[in-house]
Write a structure and sequence with these properties.
This protein is mainly beta. The chain folds into two domains: 9-144, no CATH class; 153-232, no CATH class. It has helices at residues 79-86, 175-182, and strands at residues 9-11, 17-23, 41-43, 49-52, 63-68, 92-99, 104-109, 126-131, 138-144, 153-154, 160-164, 187-192, 197-202, 219-223, 231-232. The protein has a four-stranded antiparallel sheet with strand order 5-8-6-7, with helices on one face. It is globular, with a radius of gyration of 16 Å.
Length: 233
């Protein structure tokens, strides 16, 4: 099987198999970067992202990256396997998932018998991963493209939700379009791995963060409203 790399996320369909590549680029949602600090923002319930990321910050030499699992990847079913897949040398130290009900990150320290257990991961799941300075700057998912209509995001109303734009939603190209497709969403945030902050778009606003591009297979935080559906798409 052949790997393809691009400046964002590339999907190649070869007899039902795909390669999805994530490259380190400024602001790249899938980048594995090596910043000197971790001074990011954590999504809180409400309209702002202001607390430290994550609740128990790792060493300053770690860099957090936002990734998702858009393909059916053989042998990747839990957080530790995600870390090992990205870098078998062990330089991915933590993997975090968003608990929308509690509005907190659940953080797994890779390989540890203590703390958060090695949680399951599924196709379409958005994650955060913490890398040391020795981690690779690129990695590629290799696996099967999920059947159309099989990947869904469960949404909590009037809360921050961490979602992945499914591969079959290629018509969605901007933050405002994503909000409109879901319904009731007032804010959309993307992770800036270079600055280690969330960049927040207030939907429809002529002020503040411009209406940034979104891509299939990438993760985003969205602030739902009372009218948002319980599942999307």
């Amino acid at each position: 099987m052949k790997r393809f790399l691009s400046t964002g996320i590339a999907i190649a369909l070869l007899l039902g198999l795909a390669v999805l590549a994530m490259l380190a680029r400024p602001g790249g949602a899938g980048a594995l970067l090596r910043p000197a600090r971790v001074a990011a923002a954590l999504a809180q319930r409400g309209s702002s992202l202001s607390a430290a990321l994550p609740a128990a910050a790792p060493e300053a030499s770690y860099g957090w990256s936002a990734i998702a699992l858009p393909l059916n990847v053989s042998g990747v079913t839990n957080a530790d396997q995600v870390a090992s897949y990205i870098d078998s040398a062990g330089n991915i130290k933590q993997v975090a998932k968003w608990d929308a009900a509690a509005q907190i990150w659940t953080i797994r320290t890779v390989g540890s018998p203590l703390g958060t257990p090695n949680f399951a991961v599924t196709t379409g799941m958005p994650l955060l991963v913490a890398a040391t300075g020795a981690a690779p700057t690129t990695f590629a998912w290799v696996g099967d493209v999920p059947d159309q209509g099989t990947v869904h995001n469960t949404l909590a109303p009037s809360m921050w939700n961490y979602i992945m734009v499914p591969l079959d939603q290629g018509s969605i190209s901007t933050a405002d379009a994503l909000a409109a497709a879901i319904g009731g969403v007032t804010k959309v945030a993307r992770w800036d791995a270079t600055a280690q902050i969330w960049v927040i778009r207030t939907v429809g606003s002529p002020l503040g963060t411009p209406n940034f591009a979104v891509s299939i297979g990438y993760p985003y935080l969205i602030l739902t409203g009372a009218s948002s559906p319980a599942q999307w798409p």
